[in-house]
Known about the structure:
The structure is a homotetramer.
Chain A: H1 14-25, H2 29-39, E1 48-53, H3 57-68, E2 72-77, H4 85-93, E3 97-99, H5 106-117, E4 123-126, H6 130-137, E5 147-150, H7 153-164, E6 172-174, H8 179-182, H9 185-202, E7 210-214, H10 218-229, E8 233-237, H11 241-249, E9 253-254, H12 257-260, E10 266-269, H13 279-282, E11 290-293, H14 303-309, E12 312-317, E13 320-324, E14 330-334, H15 340-343, H16 350-369, E15 377-378, H17 382-395
Parallel strand pairs in A: 1-2, 1-4, 2-3, 4-5, 5-6, 6-15, 7-8, 7-10, 8-9, 10-11, 11-14
Antiparallel strand pairs in A: 12-13, 13-14
Amino acid sequence: MASEDYIIKDINLAPKGEILIEWVAKWMPVLNSLYEKFKGPGAFKNKKIALCIHLEAKTAYLALIIKKLGAEVWITSSNPLSTKDEVTAALVKEGVHVFAKHGASSEEYWSYLEKILKNKMDVIVDDGGDICEYLHEHPEYGTNVLGICEETTTGVNRLKELNSAGKLKYPAIAVNDAKSKHLFDNRYGTGQSTWTAITHLTNLNIAGKCVVVVGYGWVGKGVSARAKGMGADVIITEIDPWKALEARMDGFRVMTIAAAAPLGDFFITATGEKEVIRLEHIEKMHSGAFLANAGHFDFEIDITSLKKTAKSCQVVRDEIEEYILKNGNRIYVLARGGIINIAGGLGHAADIMDMSFSVQLSCLNYFLTSGKLEPKLIKVPEEIDRMVTEEKLGVEGISIDKK
Amino acid sequence: MASEDYIIKDINLAPKGEILIEWVAKWMPVLNSLYEKFKGPGAFKNKKIALCIHLEAKTAYLALIIKKLGAEVWITSSNPLSTKDEVTAALVKEGVHVFAKHGASSEEYWSYLEKILKNKMDVIVDDGGDICEYLHEHPEYGTNVLGICEETTTGVNRLKELNSAGKLKYPAIAVNDAKSKHLFDNRYGTGQSTWTAITHLTNLNIAGKCVVVVGYGWVGKGVSARAKGMGADVIITEIDPWKALEARMDGFRVMTIAAAAPLGDFFITATGEKEVIRLEHIEKMHSGAFLANAGHFDFEIDITSLKKTAKSCQVVRDEIEEYILKNGNRIYVLARGGIINIAGGLGHAADIMDMSFSVQLSCLNYFLTSGKLEPKLIKVPEEIDRMVTEEKLGVEGISIDKK
Amino acid sequence: MASEDYIIKDINLAPKGEILIEWVAKWMPVLNSLYEKFKGPGAFKNKKIALCIHLEAKTAYLALIIKKLGAEVWITSSNPLSTKDEVTAALVKEGVHVFAKHGASSEEYWSYLEKILKNKMDVIVDDGGDICEYLHEHPEYGTNVLGICEETTTGVNRLKELNSAGKLKYPAIAVNDAKSKHLFDNRYGTGQSTWTAITHLTNLNIAGKCVVVVGYGWVGKGVSARAKGMGADVIITEIDPWKALEARMDGFRVMTIAAAAPLGDFFITATGEKEVIRLEHIEKMHSGAFLANAGHFDFEIDITSLKKTAKSCQVVRDEIEEYILKNGNRIYVLARGGIINIAGGLGHAADIMDMSFSVQLSCLNYFLTSGKLEPKLIKVPEEIDRMVTEEKLGVEGISIDKK
Amino acid sequence: MASEDYIIKDINLAPKGEILIEWVAKWMPVLNSLYEKFKGPGAFKNKKIALCIHLEAKTAYLALIIKKLGAEVWITSSNPLSTKDEVTAALVKEGVHVFAKHGASSEEYWSYLEKILKNKMDVIVDDGGDICEYLHEHPEYGTNVLGICEETTTGVNRLKELNSAGKLKYPAIAVNDAKSKHLFDNRYGTGQSTWTAITHLTNLNIAGKCVVVVGYGWVGKGVSARAKGMGADVIITEIDPWKALEARMDGFRVMTIAAAAPLGDFFITATGEKEVIRLEHIEKMHSGAFLANAGHFDFEIDITSLKKTAKSCQVVRDEIEEYILKNGNRIYVLARGGIINIAGGLGHAADIMDMSFSVQLSCLNYFLTSGKLEPKLIKVPEEIDRMVTEEKLGVEGISIDKK
Lengths: 403, 403, 403, 403
């Protein structure tokens, strides 16, 4: 590959990246079966496909599958902090056009997008909505675009606004809303990986601890179910009355954050809302309390105010900061309030992402085989959603009854 | 009350019925708080309100509350087999017009409906849709009707058909669809009461038994969660791939009914579908297996075929029939395949029905205070749904955060 | 049978008793297999065997098995309040010598013991130690006694005292201490049947309730595990520091009874100690709290003081007494503080008692085949204990590995 | 410190070790409170104390506490593979005599023991029994020894043999048998840390997987409870009939290893026995199965035979070896069959080890304050065992009732 066709940290890191990608490849059998299915028809052949996603082993494997199906793949990272430089090196070795470096600046980030888009993509996988925004601002790059597949809630929300306002210029699929994706990766994926990250970072026992989970949506349900399963005494806080009552009927104590503040040993946010744990709460916590966030963005805990008012802040162990408050209490923040399972751990399990990425690949195929579609936001086709979950049941050897 | 104004079994049973009603009255604090709220405005005063529901202590208390709010209450039973004659006696003592006898014939049943409706009701609580059907066939009785509140899925489905066909002649509310109702009574109410009934009827231990739950909807989720909580080894069968995978991720084995048939000690249907457990399955079960149904209707287990082909059928204990199959195996059917928690037990807990009936009372109030509405099917107003759950949180002493 | 050979309420109740016994007979396969095993050798033939136990269907079936093995069986009740008159009638029909009436006076109780013992028994099954005491006071009746099998902790404790003091005159086996018995009936048997009784008596939902379990021994562990499994928020109180910490590590809140008093909706004692829930605690409880006891004796809750100081006490439903305190609160006592699963329900499951009674039958056989033994307290022989559990695994179809 | 007084890898690694030790110091409040308690009396002053244990942050902190109490501390590692060179460097900086290097040879290992013992220790902490053996072979070094504290089951078993044979030359305490230790670290400590290690090493989802736990002792109970809590479908294998039935009553399937072999996704041994998972089982497993060991020694899975007969063996990720069998299946072995939570993770949680090491420190103090004792194996004194658990309840803020 010509050297202008990629920008990465160091090509020599490739061997380590290859090992990581080979590992996850073994645990994505649904994606592998779709590869077999889509290989024959050849819809991906010579198409240009862009991905703007978290760049680590599992997404890299999705990119490689697309490449193996005959497409030209252009990829960048939706978040420079999650980029793994050994993985990008391995991708370049395989002929993928990568523009991504761990810790890239905002300027570099947008320049990467442009470098990719000016090559006139056919279909796009977006994660958060930045590529989509760029394409709306630079329609000259979007002339070939058959469609956009959006992975996240945030990105879907941005698409919905454009769609309602009648300003959406490309067909787009809300991949996040597929049952095969949101019913599984949030609850079971985040539920488990949040606790693997926390116990690995802290080397502390969860049994017998009081865990406060802020929010009882899919993520909160998963995080609290796993906490209970580890022997924790769990408290839920909510703003929604029905979810609050569900939490109570599931056996948890339910109260306000203010009431829970002095009781918790671990506080985990899972709301999607800004600054739900604030200084007024943190000041009531006992010394030794931990704060972590399981939501997508790093704004659920008001760390800015904490940093401003604390007497000191010190890294005391990998991804653990100790804040000493004016009242003398020590509060520990994990992964600087970023999404704990990714920023402080390995992210979702490979076999969970197998389903999400299989929906992605199928939606790409849908755009490549459906001709020119209307520029509006569409649902993941029911047959794709059903096929992916049925395929997953198949690889797990699970039979179900016919209606 | 004039003797033509009621038809019941025996007025002398009233004292026993009063005790039962007084008990449940203590555990319906939300309904009691609504009584306080609606008492002042007086919207119920002198209105004629009909109820066609399961006639036992909890529904009787709803009727009494409506009476105490100033309305004239006319009531019959939606299912003559569930009618408690001591409860009807207690209601008559309090001045409620009751037309119901345990074991009434179909002819009597429809005559009761007519006796009530010819008095020209203002609002109606229906449970299954029979009153609604009758009113559509006899529009002369419906001239005053402001609205119909439907309690069940079945009734709501009948209303939806009428509504789509443009044939609905009265405003109607799908009470069943309120989150305050279906999120709680199916999962937590049926989940628990199914097992109280089974363990009370059989005097057997559930820990260490293999329990097969057919269907993983709200009822199936509740029944299987409680079975797991009692130490059972639980198998789920499904026809929906997403629910099947959810069940697997919740830790259960998932397979077809045919595959589960030789493994189960208890089989519990919760599908809403006809004849899901059939002779071909029953013949594979081991001797000593139990069959029960947690769904609304008694058609989920094909008992007709079982009865036809079994060598013998004998009642061996209260609500337990022993079938000896041609292969010599003994299969036990609980409550003749009727809904186990009601037909073989005490029904839902009083404090769960508190919420469902509070939605009912609020919807009655809605019709009484909204003037003449369009004849179409409407949702439970969001403010009612929210108010009932917030009130429930209040009586439980649970505070939640503000958005 | 000659009419002087039994004293029961009414022989005409037999048919109802037969149905109950036939039912439990189906669910005691281990006992049934032991019958087959002991039938050939004939050790029970023409021996006189006395039983002094709770007289209900499951114990009646044990008596019938002994009778069928060729012994002459003499039986009375260890607790006149638990005696089922229909069951005693059925036993007399089968030729068992029964001396028991529901509600018999203390005088009658002791006269029954004498009527039995003067017939010079060969082996004795005791439950609580009264027969044993009587025999020590009347050695003239004990000349043929080969051994005593004691079922309960209480009885075993009385035997231990006699044994240590060198005053034990007969060989005795502490059946209660067999692993096949105490590891299973306390935890799994009482755990489940306590909740079946409570939910059946109250018709209330346990999910979302705060349940306080007093004591975290085997019974407390079982009762709290099942409460958690039903969706309760469980608090444990203890006096033993290790059990308290175990409870905490199992995810429960742990505190003193005084601290738990204002929090609980249900309080369940399981300590074996006297007056652990006292007036000082009851006065702190919220109105509507329930008190129940899962321990063997009815002295764990101080009902005497409650009765003395309450403004009123009234039966409000079967086995539920409502006490109105001076502070106006209403406190509900279940089954008058007696052991809730028996006094307010059906007792342990038949398939759990199958193991306990199989140990009993094997210990009887042991005495009948071992010749004259030393008059001391002995353990259940390891081979009996192992055989019963292995037999249970066998009937359940469970294979284990060889060492 | 003179350079002949320690042998470590590299003193410059100290800063990293200090961070690790400071972290665990925060989470060992019971040990910290004992330090305050023992500081005044001064029993440790100028005593020589040897430790032969796993040398990582938590044990290092125990050593530092002993040092701060005034003793001269000599330490080596009971297992060269678990030695952390940054931790040994930090200890030397603090004046502890360390003789340990990661990967030391067997020759070096025994030379370290000699270097320590020839300084004539007063009290000894042993982990596995090697120091104790050495002292019996070299009695000239043991003339000052007041006692030996043994941490592990293995070491305790070796002591019991010596004791029974009348050959034990020093007083010794079986620290492992304290309730404060074995009731908590095996079940809750190993239970959790086993799964943190597995999920961190594999990045796979446990929900919906079939987990086979071999052995249902304390470790097996902990590992299976946590697996269930993560949504796994758990199978138990056992050789003990009572434990097998307990497992069944706890809701698990129970079968032989041979029967479970084709079903499991993860196999975890917890038996203390040799070669429980053998080639005959591995050959029946499906491709993709994982093998891990949670027992103390690395002999529970017969890896030697696996290695001999497999077509290939390759490290595919950190601490994961992929064996390709002759039948083509791929089997993954974690941490080479060594104890997974230590060899593949961070070991027990710091707050769990707080209790175990507090028992250790108290037993050291017991020897230092009891004068010359008989050379026999003694139990942890009840008052120490009770004090440690009460102290733990205290730091957790848990109050219990008085008897």
